[in-house]
Design goal:
Layout (H helix, E strand, L loop, with lengths): L1 E6 L4 E6 L4 H10 L7 E4 L5 H12 L3 E5 L4 E5 L7 E2 L1 H4 L9 H8 L1 E5 L12 H9 L3 E5 L2 E5 L8 E3 L5 H11 L5 E5 L5 H12 L3 E3 L6 E4 L7 E4 L4 H8 L1 H5 L1 E6 L7 H9 L2 E5 L3 E6 L9 E2 L11 H8 L5 E5 L9 H7 L3 E5 L2 E5 L4 E2 L2 E3 L3 H13 E2 L1 E5 L2 H6 L3 H6 L4 E6 L2
Parallel strand pairs: 2-15, 3-14, 6-7, 10-11, 18-19, 22-24, 23-25
Antiparallel strand pairs: 1-25, 1-26, 3-5, 4-5, 7-9, 8-9, 11-13, 12-13, 15-17, 16-17, 19-21, 20-21
The structure holds ligand EPZ.
Length: 422
C-alpha cells in the first residue's frame, strides 16, 4: 500500500485548479441509464470511484468511452444487458446504490447488492427504498441484495423524506423523471450536486422544478434523450484546499472556486480570521494578520456546514488560538481522524458526536493512518503545519476523492511525496 510523506515547510503560495465534483459525477453517471441515447460528461474528476462507476455501468450494458485523459466520459446504453448490480463491484463504493432508481425506471426490475456500511457509519439505504416504494416499486431484501420490481411502471406520488438524505433524493429524483404523472418530493436535499443532477435531467428532457429547495416537483415523461453535461465544480475539494494557506500560512488562489458553493463554510472561515477574495479566476484565501482563532462548528445538510469538510476543519482548529467545539450531526462515527491528530500533538476530546479541540502552537509530525477519504486529507493538512515529517498510510482512501493530490499540494510549495511500501 502507498503512503504519503509530508514535511512542515511554512507558508504556501500559488494556484490550485479545482476539479469536477466526485459527488456530482457519482449520481450523474447512473442517470445515463435512463435513456437509450448517448450522454457525454466533461470536467469529470480522475478518481478511482469514477473507474468503479464505469465498471458498474459496463456490467449493466453501458458502452463506456473515456477520453481527454479521463476528463470526458461518454455513456451509451442502447439496452440494458443485465438487471443485477453485483456485490463484487458495489462493495467497493456505496454510491453504487444510485443505479437502483434508474434501473427500476428504465426496465421495471433491478437487483442491487446492499452496499454495506463503511468506516463512517452504518449508512443504510432505507430512505431510498421507502421513497421508491412511494412511486410504486416493490422490494424484497434477500441474500444481501435489494430485489426490486415495478410491474406496472412507476407512478408519480407526493413523498416527504424523514431526513434530507442526499442519495435518497437523487435516487427518487431520477426514478420520478419516467414515472407516470407528477411527483412532489418534500424535505429533499438541497446540495449543489442535486441541482447539477436536475440540470442534466432537464437537458435530457425531464420536467423538474424546485431543485435546490426542500420541495422538488417532477412531471414524468415517456422517454429521455441524450445530453452533453459539464460536471459542477467540487465544493469539497475547493474547501479542502482553501484550508491549506490557513493551516500553513501564505496565500493560495483556488481556480474555478465559487463562494456560492460553500457560503456557510466561507462564513465560518471568516469568523476564524480568514480573508476570502473572489477573483476573476476563482477564490483567493489567506489568514488575516496571520492568525486563525477558535470557532464552533456544527455539520448540517446544505446550505449548512458540510460534514465532508469537518475532518479538514478539525485539523485547522487543532492549531488555532483557543478552544473550538465541533458537532457532527450527519454521521454517527466521523471523528476517526481525531486519534490520529492527537498522535501529532493535537488536544482533542471526543464525546459521542462532539469533539472539543484546544489549539496548540505547533503539531509534531508522526506516522498516522488514513481511515476514510476526508480524514486522510485532514492528516496531510495537519502535516503541512507540523514540525518534522508526517507519514500518512493507507492513502488509497485519498485516490477515491482527490485527483493529483500530491501534485496540487506540491504546486503551492508543500514538501510532499507519495511512496510505495512493499
Ligand atoms: C452523500 O452521501 C455523499 N456521498 C457523502 O460524501 C456526504 O457526506 C453525504 O451525502 C452528506 O452530505 C455521495 O454523494 C456519493 P445521506 P449519502 O444519504 O447520500 C443516513 C464523501 O466523503 N441515511 O445524506 O450516503 C446516513 O446513514 C462522502 O464524499 C439513512 O439513515 O448521504 C447518514 O447518517 C461521505 N438512511 C445520513 O443519513 C438512508 O436511506 C446522511 O446520509 C440514507 C441515509
Amino acid at each position: 500500500m502507498d503512503s504519503i510523506i509530508v514535511k512542515g515547510n511554512g507558508p504556501v503560495h500559488g494556484q490550485i485548479p479545482i476539479a469536477g465534483a466526485k459527488n456530482a459525477a457519482l449520481t450523474l453517471m447512473p442517470a445515463a441509464l435512463l435513456t437509450d441515447q448517448p450522454v457525454t460528461f466533461t470536467n469529470v474528476p480522475r478518481l478511482s470511484d469514477i473507474k468503479t462507476t464505469n465498471e458498474l455501468l459496463a456490467s449493466l450494458g453501458t458502452e463506456v468511452t473515456v477520453s481527454d485523459e479521463g476528463q470526458t466520459i461518454k455513456l451509451h446504453t442502447p439496452e440494458m444487458t443485465s438487471d443485477v448490480a453485483h456485490y463484487d463491484i458495489v462493495r467497493k463504493m456505496r454510491a453504487s446504490i444510485l443505479v437502483l432508481g434508474p434501473m427500476i425506471a428504465r426496465n421495471g426490475v433491478a437487483a442491487v447488492s446492499l452496499p454495506g456500511g463503511c468506516a463512517i457509519g452504518a449508512r443504510p439505504v432505507d430512505l431510498h427504498l421507502r421513497g421508491l416504494e412511494a412511486l410504486g416499486a416493490e422490494f424484497d431484501l434477500r441474500d444481501g441484495y435489494v430485489h426490486a420490481k415495478a410491474p406496472g411502471g412507476l407512478k408519480g406520488a407526493v413523498y416527504e423524506l424523514p431526513f434530507a438524505s442526499v442519495g435518497a433524493t437523487e435516487n427518487i429524483l431520477m426514478a420520478a423523471t419516467l414515472a407516470k404523472g407528477t411527483t412532489v418530493l418534500k424535505n429533499a436535499a438541497r446540495e449543489p450536486e442535486i441541482v447539477d443532477l436536475a440540470d442534466l435531467l432537464r437537458s435530457m428532457g425531464a420536467k423538474i422544478t424546485g431543485d435546490g429547495s426542500p420541495d422538488i416537483t417532477i412531471e414524468g415523461v415517456e422517454t429521455l434523450g441524450g445530453a452533453n453535461h459539464p460536471v459542477v465544480t467540487d465544493r469539497i475539494e475547493l474547501g479542502t484546499y482553501m484550508l491549506a494557506p490557513l493551516i500553513a500560512g501564505g496565500e493560495v488562489e483556488l481556480l474555478g472556486g465559487k463562494r456560492s458553493l460553500l457560503e456557510a463554510f466561507c462564513q465560518k472561515l471568516e469568523e476564524a480570521g480568514a480573508e476570502i477574495t473572489e477573483t476573476g479566476a476563482g477564490l483567493k484565501v489567506a489568514a488575516k494578520n496571520g492568525r486563525i482563532h477558535a470557532v464552533d462548528v456544527t455539520t448540517e445538510p446544505f446550505p449548512g456546514f458540510p460534514t465532508d469538510l469537518q475532518a479538514q476543519m478539525m485539523a485547522l482548529l487543532a492549531t488555532a488560538d483557543g478552544t473550538s467545539v465541533l458537532e457532527e450531526k450527519i454521521f454517527e462515527n466521523r471523528f476517526m481522524h481525531a486519534p490520529e491528530l492527537i498522535r501529532m500533538g493535537a488536544q482533542i476530546e471526543v464525546h459521542g458526536g462532539t469533539a472539543t479541540v484546544t489549539g496548540v502552537d505547533k503539531l509534531r509530525g508522526a506516522p498516522v493512518m488514513a481511515t476514510d477519504l476526508r480524514a486522510s486529507v485532514s492528516l496531510i493538512l495537519a502535516g503541512m503545519a507540523a514540525e518534522g515529517e508526517t507519514i500518512v498510510s493507507r492513502v488509497y482512501h485519498l485516490d477515491r476523492g482527490y485527483e493529483q493530490v500530491v501534485r496540487k499540494f506540491s504546486g503551492i510549495g508543500a514538501i510532499i511525496e507519495r511512496v510505495t511500501n512493499t
